[in-house]
Amino acid sequence: MSNSQLTPGIVPARLPARLYAENFSDHQPPLGPHEARVAADRCYFCFDAPCMTACPTSIDIPLFIRQIATGTPDAAARTILSQNILGGMCARVCPTETLCEEVCVRETAEGKPVEIGRLQRFAADGLMAQGIHPFTRAASTGKRVAVVGAGPAGLACAHRLAMKGHEVMVFERRPKSGGLNEYGIAAYKATNGFAQREVEWLLKIGGITVKNGVMLGRDVALGDLMTDYDAVFLGIGLAGVNALRVEGEDLPGVRDAIDFISDLRQATDLSTVPVGREVVVIGGGMTAVDAAVQSKLLGAEVVSIVYRRGREKMSASGYEQEHATRNGVCIIHGAAPVRVIGEGRTEAVEFAYTEEGPQGLTLSVERFTLKADQVFKAIGQTLAGAPQAIAVEAGKLPRHPMPKLWCGGDCALGGEDLTVTAVAEGRDAAEEIHAALSAAL
Amino acid sequence: MANLATNFIGIKSPNPFWLASAPPTDKEVNVRRAYEAGWGGVVWKTLGSEGPPVVNVSGPRYGAIWGADRRLLGLNNIELITDRPLEVNLREIKQVKRDWPDRALIISLMVPCDEESWCDILSRIEDTGADGVELNFGCPHGMAERGMGSAVGQVPEYIEMVTRWVKKHSRMPCIVKLTPNITDVRKPAEAARRGGADAVSLINTINSITGVDLDDFAPQPTIDGKGTHGGYCGPAVKPIALNMVAEIARHPETQGLPISGIGGVTTWRDAAEFMALGAGNVQVCTAAMTYGFRVVQEMISGLSDYMDRKGFTSTTDLVGRAVPNVTDWQYLNLNYVTKAQISEADCIKCGRCYIACEDTSHQAIEMLPDRSFKVKDEECVACNLCVNVCPVENCITMVRMPKGQVDPRTGRPVGDYANWVMHPNNPMARAAE
Ligand SMILES: Cc1cc2nc3c(=O)[nH]c(=O)nc-3n(C[C@H](O)[C@H](O)[C@H](O)COP(=O)(O)OP(=O)(O)OC[C@H]3O[C@@H](n4cnc5c(N)ncnc54)[C@H](O)[C@@H]3O)c2cc1C
Ligand SMILES: Cc1cc2nc3c(=O)[nH]c(=O)nc-3n(C[C@H](O)[C@H](O)[C@H](O)COP(=O)(O)O)c2cc1C
Ligand code: SF4
């Protein structure tokens, strides 16, 4: 194929083959031992450390960094993983700039936090590379728990339950486990099949059976799980997406960003993934940034993110926004789409500038049009396919809606929709389930 | 996880990490927090005789020196023994020990140098349930001016005498804490052993002035325009303490005398080093004062990992393992030849090794036009300075020349073991047997 960045339409292979590997390599390379030592030396071992409080899984950050500094990175890894079994993935994908590193006292002192995320990766990767799974199971309790969804929430829950000696059956709709770690996270954050390697490593604990291709509501019913198991955990994420509700939304070329990302993540050869020459991404979160940046890295010529509110309202962090612009993405704030234009396929999007007033967001009369042969919708995911029996609150499931049933991760109330939050909620649900099952013994 | 439980002169503790007698162990509230954080034992802040307690200064009592990034390397103090009433301390000790029976609790003592004073204090602490006593013959400031602390510790005869009294009037295990402010630490250790001590602990703090106020012209810490020497401790004193521990461990007269190692222990590695040189456990003060009690967690995980790596199942596997390898200079192998080797891959080209060698050593490093650095084997005496000044760990290493290979510096092949005792240049050389 001899496509280029200038080829019109949605086509694959816009770049010379070698550029794909380069563009999608680790966006933040791992620390070497010397770098890790120097980075670890900067930690002050704060009391009641702000970083630890900011971490949704409450990893003992000062301790693990001290363990790296004293030449025992495996001990550091155990400190991390005992709180967060997906510490390897979180080290790669956590927006540390709004979590631990934002509150690091050296951020306050020097505007340069200790590189907590990269140090965490150094330790966790080191242990995993040795094939060591540092946890063992408690004696069998004879109790069985069903976990629905093998995303971060479900996996964290399953692991903690297995560790406590329970038998865990995981039902996962998709052919691969990992949830958005496998199908959503930007490719350059989890290179070399890390998501699958991490799942395999996690399952080494034993006592967890994963059934892929089994969907709750289609292949199994909640009622049956509730009778067949001693407890049930739902970590089904957000399977639905919001619609734009504008004219032309159904034209070929308009697509959900997460579907595009999922295809990209599953492609064995990135040069086969088609992308537009002019791409418009609508939204303001991490999904919008990831869709835009990866479009650019696939060779799109012009990529714009258009967000309806101001910059400060974007849920993508300042760091993420900078990451987008550094990669050549243009971010337009304060504009909302009013119409997708095209004859039989997408050709452009018309936007109206917005005004924030007491009545909320209103469209002004000022309009502009962006050329686009591809439009990605990244305006938020929604809960879908949740069992009827559970009353939905504010679009999410309660954490403990009824006896024997727990929910966690993106599908459930509480916390931000982040990998690390899902891990914390899955782990905590497992602890609650364990307490309930132990009380029942 | 390796089992860290230790039995030191019959005193059991879940790990070999004790807090040294000092402010961290001055009160019930501290000691409880320490045990909660995981410390295996504590030596309670030194108690004095019945009667009005001593009075501390109310100005600054600490001075410090720092490394890069203001890392605390050395701490100096002019604090005295406990300034709280004896009865309060004894009541608290009893309560804490009752609630934490599995942790070691030692009482440190310092009373005037007469048998009656020692007999009296020992009878008062008898029913506290404490596991043993430590005799503070080390405190180098304040108390020494009153004929106690290092004033006793510097006179071996006094050490022997007091230790004898203590063994006579008490059945408790007795640890004698030694001062480093002495020329040969083996003498007081011998005296302690003669007096019947069950163990020695060392080091107490080193006489020091940490700094001078250059506007007021007074030593720091400065109390109303004056200063006095204090006791120095922290990471900076570790090498001094290690040597003293090793001296006692290998000295024929003191060999086998249990040692509690103290001085700059900050990480698991420091502890392991003390233990390898013969310490049955370690005591820590400055690291806890710098980082809080939680710092013990790294020591526990680190030592345990290390022992697992080594296949050690008990701390006794480690204790004293390096002692046979501590020797006198005259027995070092003069035919052991190494050469510095710079790893180009790791080199960041700062040039520090080059200038150190060029200006102050043996002009054995060559700086090439592309700013890479190469060791000239024909000049390198293997002094190790380049290794020590290199900012990148393991970038410069010492590589041993195999036997038979010609050392380009001397032009002679590397020979068999031969030390100074046998060397032809030694006027008193003896032929090898
Ligand atoms: C594009 C994108 C990028 C992101 N980037 C980041 C990032 O960089 N950093 C970060 O912290 N967070 C990021 N997030 C958010 C993060 O991925 C999620 O918060 C996290 O994956 C939530 O975990 P979860 O287990 O709750 O849900 P999911 O990861 O969504 O997992 C849910 C699992 O349940 C399965 N499932 C759903 N319904 C059923 C059913 N009915 N029956 C059986 N199985 C079912 C799904 O197939 C899936 O495997 C990103 C999200 C997206 C969409
Ligand atoms: C403030 C302070 C007070 C101390 N008080 C005592 C004491 O009362 N009795 C004693 O035996 N040693 C005392 N020491 C000495 C310590 O117990 C210990 O021997 C010394 O600090 C070396 O250990 P380190 O390097 O871990 O601090 C004190 C040390 C400090 C810093
Ligand atoms: S540490 Fe500071 S605040 Fe606390 S007693 Fe000492 S001088 Fe006062």
Can you put this structure into words, describing what you see?
The complex is a heterodimer of chains A (441) and B (433). Chain A is of the alpha/beta class and 441 residues long. Chain A folds into three domains: 33-129, Orthogonal Bundle (Fumarate Reductase Iron-sulfur Protein, Chain B, domain 2); 144-239 and 383-440, 3-Layer(bba) Sandwich (FAD/NAD(P)-binding domain), CATH 3.50.50.60; 241-377, FAD/NAD(P)-binding domain. Helices cover 35% and strands 18% of the residues of chain A. Chain A has 16 helices and 15 strands. Chain A has helices at 17-23, 33-41, 50-54, 61-69, 73-83, 87-93, 105-110, 116-129, 152-163, 180-183, 194-203, 222-228, 257-266, 286-297, 318-326, 419-440; strands spanning 144-148, 167-172, 208-212, 231-234, 240-241, 254-256, 278-283, 302-307, 330-333, 335-341, 348-357, 360-371, 374-378, 381-382, 405-407. In chain A, the strands form four sheets. Chain A has a five-stranded parallel sheet with strand order 3-2-1-4-15, covered by helices on one side. In chain A, helix 4 (61-69) crosses helix 8 (116-129). Chain A is globular. In chain A, 48% of the residues are buried. In chain B, helix 8 (268-276) links the parallel strand 15 (259-262) and strand 16 (279-284). Chain B has 433 residues and is an alpha/beta fold. The longest helix of chain B is centred in the C-terminal third of the chain and has 15 residues, at 296-310. Chain B contains twelve helices and 22 strands. Chain B has two domains: 6-325, Alpha-Beta Barrel (TIM Barrel); 333-432, Alpha-Beta Plaits. In chain B, helix 3 (115-125) crosses helix 5 (156-169). An eight-stranded parallel β-barrel of chain B has the order 3-4-7-8-9-10-15-16, surrounded by seven helices. Chain B has a four-stranded antiparallel sheet with strand order 5-6-14-11, with no helix packed on it. In chain B, strands 1-2 form a two-stranded antiparallel ribbon. Chain B has helices at residues 28-37, 86-99, 115-125, 150-153, 156-169, 186-195, 238-250, 268-276, 286-291, 296-310, 352-360, 385-389; strands at 6-8, 11-13, 17-19, 41-47, 62-66, 72-77, 104-109, 132-136, 174-177, 199-202, 206-208, 211-213, 218-220, 230-233, 259-262, 279-284, 338-342, 365-367, 373-375, 396-400, 406-407, 412-413. Chain A binds chain B through residues 33-34, 37, 41-42, 45, 47, 62-63, 66-67, 70-72, 74-75, 78-79, and chain B through 69, 267-269, 291-292, 294-295, 297-298, 301-302, 304-306, 346, 392-393. The structure holds flavin-adenine dinucleotide (FAD), flavin mononucleotide (FMN) and iron/sulfur cluster. The site of flavin mononucleotide (FMN) has 28 residues of chain B, from strand 4, strand 6 and helix 9. Flavin mononucleotide is lined by residues 20-23, 45-46, 75, 77, 79, 81, 108, 136, 138-139, 177, 204-205, 233-234, 237, 262-265, 284-287 of chain B.
